[in-house]
Design brief:
The protein has one domain (2-192): 3-Layer(aba) Sandwich (Rossmann fold), CATH 3.40.50. Helix content is 41%, strand content 26%. The chain is built from seven helices and seven strands; from the N terminus they run ααβαβαββαβααββ. Helix 1 runs parallel beside helix 4 (68-77) and helix 2 crosses helix 3 (49-56). The longest helix has 14 residues, at 14-27. The N and C termini lie far apart (31 Å).
């Protein structure tokens, strides 16, 4: 798996990512009060930078990923924290009961999935979350470096950017897109239709 191989490289950027997520969470606090949540799922946690910041805010975080390499990095980076790390298999039901989490959040994951895979993620997150879901992902302001990296990863990035809001609108009654950075947005989803 590609992310198992490149996980040590991602690990080098952990501190930078922690600073980035702190800045974003501070910037977005007018739109979303993260402290209103208690139990949070971090879907596709990678090296655990977002999980680290969320637990630092006092939230109980469960972080999941399909990549053993990324989880190995996360274990190292999150040593001494209360973040629970769980390995999952792609395209399988998540190992949690209905309404387990107050919030499900995912950073730079959803764009890499094919349309049918995204639909399954929407449905699963609706099942395990009490209603609030946030995708931190690209907006329409792309860079050449991002285009090249996403082309090499062979995800659905180029299509996702075009259809994100309308696609999400099929599965959620409330879809709000807030630019949180020059090239990133929060897709804030509430009230599942599924």
């Amino acid at each position: 798996m590609l992310f198992d191989i490149i996980s040590p490289i991602y690990g080098l950027f952990f501190d930078h990512q922690v600073k980035y997520y702190r800045k974003i969470l501070n910037r977005i606090k007018e739109e979303v009060n993260i402290n209103q949540y208690e139990r949070v799922l971090d879907l596709g946690c990678g090296t655990g930078a977002l999980s680290y910041v969320l637990q630092d805010l006092g939230l109980k975080v469960t972080a999941i990923d399909t990549s053993s390499g990324m989880l190995r990095q996360a274990r190292r980076k999150l040593k001494g924290t209360q973040v629970e790390l769980v390995k999952i298999k792609a395209n399988e039901r998540l190992p949690f009961e209905d309404d387990t989490f107050d919030l499900a959040i995912s950073s730079y994951v959803i764009h890499g999935l094919k349309p049918k895979e995204r639909v399954e993620v929407y449905k699963e997150l609706c099942r395990i979350s009490k209603g609030d879901i946030i995708f931190h992902d690209y907006n329409e302001n792309r860079s050449l470096i991002t285009d090249i990296a996403e082309f090499l990863e062979n995800g659905d990035y180029f299509n996702f950017i075009k259809v994100a809001k309308s696609e999400m609108g099929k599965y959620f009654k409330d879809v709000k897109v807030v630019d949180v950075d020059k090239k990133a947005a929060w897709y804030i989803l509430q009230n599942c239709n599924t």
